[in-house]
UniProtKB/TrEMBL annotation:
It comes from the Eukaryota. The lineage of its organism: Eukaryota, Metazoa, Spiralia, Lophotrochozoa, Annelida. It comes from Dimorphilus gyrociliatus. Coiled coil: none annotated. It holds the Pfam family PhyH. This is DgyrCDS10703. Its cofactor is Fe cation.
């Protein structure tokens, strides 16, 4: 990779979260892959331009096709985490994001093989009301869906400023090395065992608050411990998250997320070229009733 295109730095001087500053056409390198393997997370600054973020927000807010399908999960402290979730990318602007090469190719490089779209979700923490997302590993509950290996990752794209002030993401770099830990149902969320979380925070040097601008992007391992606080600020905090599973890690159970479905990549330019802001056909939004049934089954000890 040409040094003029991207530069590897640290998120902060005292942080072990590696950061890449994107100044051109992004392409992952072996050094970035090594850092991801070591820390379980990598931040790419400026992966999406302001124009692209505005274009994505226009697609989300042009109608209530996405926001109108949102629902909440209680954090057990009087608030809820609000989200909309869909199973397949679709052909609208948000689908171009989930299918673009700068995302999919990076995920394939980090996971070491073909990937497919596991789901996308819009996380909405509105000012003064947004609830906590409790400590967890994504594989802590994806394991229950029949994934045999943690060969799956999340791409976290803030659409607003996302920091400590408005309930931004906290991670424990390196914690993915601990493997999957026990998770329990707390309120309406799946949360990691608190005693083990505290021990792992100490073992791996503590939690890190990420400080992200719209268009910065995190790629993180499915066993990385992470959480986010409630939003008591005057700032909205909306984030766009896509999850990708390796094609040869097809879940052995049918559940509320897709089994292997070939993913049709698009050029990065397709995001701005796409003018479909309203047709959400093919996305298959998750019905919260399906998720509630899933939680009841987990409580009863299925799988």
């Amino acid at each position: 990779m040409d040094e003029k295109t991207c530069k590897i730095v640290k998120l902060r001087e005292n942080s072990s979260v590696p950061e890449v500053v994107n100044t051109g056409k992004f392409q992952i390198t072996s050094d970035m892959k090594a850092m991801y393997d070591e820390e379980g997370v990598i931040c790419v600054r400026n992966l999406f331009s302001k124009e692209e973020i505005d274009h994505i927000l226009k697609a989300i807010t042009a109608t209530d096709e996405i926001t109108g399908k949102s629902w909440g999960r209680s954090d057990g402290e009087g608030r809820s985490v609000k989200l909309a979730l869909w199973k397949h990318p679709g052909n609208d602007v948000t689908g171009m994001v989930a299918r673009c090469k700068r995302i999919v190719d990076t995920c394939e490089a980090l996971l070491g093989g073909e990937v497919y779209h596991y789901h996308t979700k819009l996380m909405m923490k509105d000012a003064k009301t947004g609830g906590k997302h409790l400590w967890h590993q994504d594989y802590g509950y994806w394991y229950k869906n029949g994934m045999l290996r943690p060969d799956v990752l999340t791409v976290f794209i803030p659409l607003d400023v996302c920091n400590k002030t408005n309930g931004g993401l906290q991670v424990v770099p390196g914690s993915h090395k601990a493997g999957r830990i026990e998770h329990l149902t707390v309120a309406e969320q799946t949360a990691a065992n608190d005693e083990r979380v505290q021990a792992l925070c100490e073992h791996f040097g503590g939690k890190v608050y990420t400080d992200l601008q719209p268009g910065d992007t995190l790629f993180f391992h499915s066993n990385l411990l992470h959480t986010s606080d409630k939003n008591d600020s005057d700032m909205r905090r909306w984030c766009f998250l896509t999850a990708y599973n390796r094609a040869d890690n097809d879940p052995i159970y049918k559940h509320h997320h897709p089994n292997y479905t070939p993913l049709s990549k698009v050029e990065d330019s397709a995001i701005l070229e796409c003018q479909n802001f309203t047709d959400m056909s093919g996305k298959e939004f998750l019905d919260p009733k399906d998720y509630d049934q899933h939680l009841r089954l987990k409580k009863s000890g299925y799988h």
